[in-house]
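Handout, page 2. Input:
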Amino acid sequence: CHGFSASPTHQLSHRVLGVAPARPGFAAIAVSPDLADLDHARGVVPTIVGDVEVRLEREGGGFVATVNAPAGIPIAIAAAPGISLRSAVRGSPTRGFHEARFERIEAGGA
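Output:
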């Protein structure tokens, strides 16, 4: 097995699903998804504190992100470059469920 063959999984997990540690050891988790030109994406990112499941679904001019993460772990959901957060993040940090709506910023837009 070659390390370069793992690149698609890494790209999906970090660039599309946007999952990254916000603190060492995933003591807090950052999620900055970018659905790009895909209609949907779904994946599970294993971490030392448990699995982080992200589901992205196209909706109008943007997309909805649903994040399920280990209960009690702080989750920060933010917009990736070129994307804006359209509505407030809803969810329950104690249950590990979060939802956010995003839209792509048009060239020359705010």
